[in-house]
Amino acid sequence: MKGLAMLKIGEIGWIEKERPACGPRDAVVRPLALAPCTSDIHTVWEGAIGDRHNLILGHEALGIVDEVGSEVKDFKSGDRVIVPAITPDWETDAAQRGFPSQTGGPLGGWKFSNSKDGVFGEFFHVNLADYNLAHLPKGMSLEAGVMLPDMLSTGFAGAENANIKFGSTVAVLGIGPVGLSAIAGAKLRGAGRIFAVGTRPASVKVAKEYGATHIVNYKEGDTVEQIRNATNGEGVDAVIVAGGGYEVMMDAINVAKPGSVVSNINYFGSGMGDQDVIPLPRIGWGFGMADKNIMTGLCPGGRVRMERLAEVVMCGRMDPALMATHVFKGFDKLEEALLLMKEKPKDLIKPVVIV
Ligand code: NDP
Ligand code: ZN
């Protein structure tokens, strides 16, 4: 079978591999709709998690079940499914402690395009099918559905971890598809004012539709100053970090007020200097004592998460398809879509490939 792979740091290409084998509790799935992620860009072009050789990329997919193992109960060949980006080992200690994304060590639930071949192949393997697949609801468009495995799950996690109360003031730093999903999540959790920080016009438009009340252009002025000026110098109750380099954590802490949460869902592809660190502002952080709490999270995965996100969409609470700005037809277009995600033209939010 054919797949689009990371050949080594900085290089991608099409490769041939064996179709994956299916374990007794697993499934082998064919892609129906795929999307590249900015994380694929960090992984390949920044070498952020180390080198990978001939590893098939991709972790955002809707699919058609091709084969299931003998012990799989709820799925059969031909079923249309949502495949979460994160497919935890549900029987592990970390999952039982409530952190399924971290099974088998930090980020261990993230298997596709990290520790095993991803979904950009003609077939891909899904562990624990009954726990890690969800049925694609009838009537959900592929453009909407393919945003669930990662964009909605990650963005909503950013809002969940931010402890947003009714009327909380929220700043979302970065309004790519992850930040936009965080804005939608913040609104659904009852936020009052939502500051959306970013510049790309396509994103600004959707940010307003998803609930942003203020747009902050970080290129035309200091983010912290602009948000402080708009909040009587106070700052915000919650910051969701969804873009930018390591320096963005300085802004996040400086714009957060005491008692706030800084909820990071950003993937820091690189750090500062030889020590590869992410600096925090000593004074802005109240010398470490200002009750400005940092939360971090990898995208939640698994079946129930996907079913709940599908419920949000099917009940018309938000329309994730608004983020699908570039829709390609055909598996062969994957490379073009991935490179577009790398280039990030101004009219792009998210490319989607309908297979
Ligand atoms: P995009 O590149 O599409 O969006 C990034 C956003 O950050 C843009 O709006 C950009 O602005 C903005 N930005 C850049 N620099 C700054 C800055 N200094 N201050 C404020 N905003 C800034 O990324 P995605 O939305 O696709 O992904 C966001 C991050 O989430 C990535 O790092 C990705 O790898 C990570 N991610 C993490 C996951 C997880 O499980 N935690 C899962 C999936 C993705 P502009 O509008 O000017 O371009
Ligand atoms: Zn991702």
Automatic annotation (TrEMBL):
<dbReference type="InterPro" id="IPR020843">
    <property type="entry name" value="ER"/>
</dbReference>
<dbReference type="InterPro" id="IPR013154">
    <property type="entry name" value="ADH-like_N"/>
</dbReference>
<keyword id="KW-0862">Zinc</keyword>
<dbReference type="Pfam" id="PF08240">
    <property type="entry name" value="ADH_N"/>
</dbReference>
<keyword id="KW-0479">Metal-binding</keyword>
<dbReference type="InterPro" id="IPR011032">
    <property type="entry name" value="GroES-like_sf"/>
</dbReference>
<comment type="similarity">
    <text>Belongs to the zinc-containing alcohol dehydrogenase family.</text>
</comment>
<dbReference type="InterPro" id="IPR036291">
    <property type="entry name" value="NAD(P)-bd_dom_sf"/>
</dbReference>
<protein>
    <submittedName>
        <fullName>NAD(P)-dependent alcohol dehydrogenase</fullName>
    </submittedName>
</protein>
<dbReference type="InterPro" id="IPR013149">
    <property type="entry name" value="ADH-like_C"/>
</dbReference>
<feature type="domain" description="Enoyl reductase (ER)">
    <location>
        <begin position="10"/>
        <end position="354"/>
    </location>
</feature>
<dbReference type="Pfam" id="PF00107">
    <property type="entry name" value="ADH_zinc_N"/>
</dbReference>
